[in-house]
Each structure stands twice: as structure tokens, then as C-alpha cells.
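Running co-folding for 2-acetamido-2-deoxy-beta-D-glucopyranose.
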Amino acid sequence: MLRFVVSILICFSTIAPFLNSVAIAALISCSGMVPMNYRNDKISITDFGGVGDGRTLNTKAFREAIYRIQHLRRRGGTLLYIPPGVYLTGSFNLTSHMTLYLAKDAVIKATQDTWNWPLIAPLPSYGRGRERPGGRYISFIHADGVHDVVITGENGTIDGQGDIWWNMWRQRTLQFTRPNLVEFVNSKNIIISSVIFRNSPFWNIHPVYCSNVVVRYVTILAPPDSPNTDGIDPDSSSHVCIEDSYISTGDDLVSVKSGWDEYGIGYGRRSFDITIRRMAGSSPFSGISVGSETSGGVEKVLAEHINLYNMGVGIHVKTNIGRGGFIRDITVSDVYMEIAQKGIKIAGDVGDHPDDRFNPNALPVVKGITIKNVWGVKVQQAGLIRGLRNSPFTGICLSNINLLGAPLRWSRSPSWKCSDVSGASHQVSPWPCSELSSSHPTNSCSSHL
Ligand SMILES: *[C@@H]1O[C@H](CO)[C@@H](O)[C@H](O)[C@H]1NC(C)=O
Ligand SMILES: *[C@@H]1O[C@H](CO)[C@@H](O)[C@H](O)[C@H]1NC(C)=O
């Protein structure tokens, strides 16, 4: 009996730290980072003539409801309720101190009338539209210079009906850069939670020049062949927290950015303090990504507890000559991936240029990237790390990484390829390239492996 009790105690003491860390991990969250204000004042889109029949155009109703929130300001702000139904509308702008609340089975659906889609000026850190010169189509749901805004509800849907835009891209008939589904510019204290995003024309959620942004409990869906439908792209923004979400799109799931070549360098606004945790998804491109637009600099990014399935690249840090800027202090940990062309890629030759005025001497500095606790199965190539000859990547630290090939489908076991990089590795399988295969005491990263 005593032996039985003792063995139970031993058993418990070995798993207890594990349980503890699980419990602690479950407690860490973005909640509290941005106050979720309760709105006493509530209005419904139907009060403004909104009709959820899927055919009536509700642009006027949305704009009038939001005009009312902006100009008849109530203490504590106003909640705009979208009841069950399908509300077709053109683009509209949000205002401060509002909650856009989508009931269960409420759908806000973008019109496919691309002819009347408004244009706005390009972002200064891009100098032009991201895919076409000149201005860009305004995002379906757009906000500039706002604070205290919440988009939430009971898992209602924001549907971009993007196929018409994807086809224009495919047929090269796009005049200007496609609209994002939701964009916040120059804004702070933003919460996006419990909403489903579908078929964005371009990037799904784009906070740019923002701070204090929380995105949680969202589902983002677009077909794997839909062009440039990135999930969440924090861009020249700080204190962004993304968690507990599922993303399956045609491009990067989460990609941290900060502007493009000479425009991004000139604007000089970095992204920092970005947390990404407990995410899952799949994409033919990257899972957790930094870049390639990083001209204002990206630092202090933490991504952890990530599950990826059917990926192009699991973890991808990308930049290019002409980008300038820096990528530093990036940590990615506790990643599980299944079926991926590449497990890890860190490269200085990815992405295109806004024009040929980029400065070929503007070399990015990539320094201090820690990737640890990664488990992958059916990974075709373990890793590719390609620094720049005149700006080698330093402090690339890999530990506790296991990337397995698929014995039947791919005959060779996955391997690493590296150039112009230094760093260290510890318990990495398959054995990484010689540049990383030993821990030199002088190495900047050996201390935290
Ligand atoms: C929405 O905001 C954009 C840019 O912030 C502005 O150009 C546009 O006029 C606004 N549209 C409406 C309908 O208020
Ligand atoms: C929204 O969906 C998630 C799962 O995707 C579920 O856990 C949550 O309870 C739902 N929330 C509401 C308010 O229906």
C-alpha cells in the first residue's frame, strides 16, 4: 500500500510541473490588454433601414448608423447590432467608441460592384499600392485615426466575396491594389474577437500604424488558391496580441511587416511587441512569418503554441536587398507542423520592390532569431537559411527541433541548407548545417539555448 502511494506521489511529482506549465499557459492571454468597454447605448442596423435579405444594398444604412454614433456621441460609446441575416453593403468606415456586434448567423457581405469601390491614397510606408502603382481601393471595413473600437459578436461572418477581385488579379485587369477586408490605420485600443472572416479580396486583417490591438477567437477562411489573402498582417504597429484563432487562406497566416524599401525606410516606423499564440491553420505559403516588407524594422516578436497543417513554409523570416531596416529579437517556440514543403526558412532574397528606385546598398540587418521546440512530420526540407553576403544573419539560434520526412512520399530525409549565417544549435534533427552546428561560447545566442 505504501509503495503504491509512493509511486503515485512520484508519478504526480513528475507530471505536476508539466500540468503546472499547461495551467499557466492557459492563463496567459491578451485579455485586459485593451479595455472591452460595455456599451449602454445600443442601436440596430435595422433602425437605419438595413435589410438582411442578401440582395438589398445596405451601404446607406451602415454609413448613417455610424454617422449617428460619431455625431451623437453617447457616454461609453455605442453598440451597432447586426441581427441574423445577410447584409450586402459597400465599404464603410468605423468610428471611435463603437462596437460592431454580429449576432449568430449575421453576415456582412461586400458588394461585388468593383466599379464604384472608393479609392484612397497609398500608405506612406509603401509609397504606392502594394500591387499596383498609385492609390488603392479602400478596405471593405476601414478605420483611420480611431480608438476604442470593438468588432465582435457570436461568430457572425464578414464576407469579402473576393473571387471577383482574385479573378481581376489573375486576368491582370486590376487597376489599383485590391481592398483589405478590415484595415485600421493610425488607431489604438482595438479588439477583434469571435468573428469569422471569409473570402477577403486581399489581406484579411491589416492594422497599420496602430498600437494596442487584440485579435482573438477569430476564424479566417479563404481558398488555398486565392491570391494574397494573408490572414493577419500587423504592419508598423506595436503591442499587437493575436491568439486562439484558426486561419486557412491562400497566403501567409500571420505576417509581421513594416513598410517597403525606400518608402518604408523613409517613414521609419517599426513593428514591435507582437505576440502570436495558440494559433492553428494551413496555407500553401507561410504559417508564422516576418516580412518581406520590413523596412521600418521588426523586433520583439513572440510566437508560441502554433499548429500548422499542409504548409508551404512553417516558419518564415523574409527580407531583401533594398529593404534596409532590421529584424531582431524574434522568438518562435512550441510549433507542431504536419506536411510542409519547408520547416524553417530565413532568407534575404524574398519579395519584390515597389519600383527601381530602391537603394541596393540598403541591406537589412537580421539578428537574434530563436526557434525552439519544433516538431514536424512529413517535412520535405528541414531548413533553408540564406543570409546576405554583405550583411550576414547573426544570432540564429535553433534548439530542440525535430523535423521528420515522410518515408514513403519523400525518399530522402529532410536536410538543411545555409549560407552567410552564424548562430548555434542544440538538439536539432536532422543535423543542421555546419554554420550552426556548434555552440561557440562567444556566440550571442548560446546563453539562451
Ligand atoms: C472613409 O475614410 C476615408 C479615409 O480615411 C475617407 O477618404 C472617406 O471619405 C471615408 N468615407 C466615408 C463614407 O466617410
Ligand atoms: C464561437 O466559436 C468558437 C469556436 O470556433 C466557440 O468556442 C465559441 O463558443 C463561439 N462563441 C459564440 C459566442 O458563439
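Result summary
Residues 236 and 271 are 4 Å apart (CA to CA).
The pocket of 2-acetamido-2-deoxy-beta-D-glucopyranose (ligand 1) is lined by residues 63, 93, 120, 142, 144 (CB under 6 Å).
Job closed.
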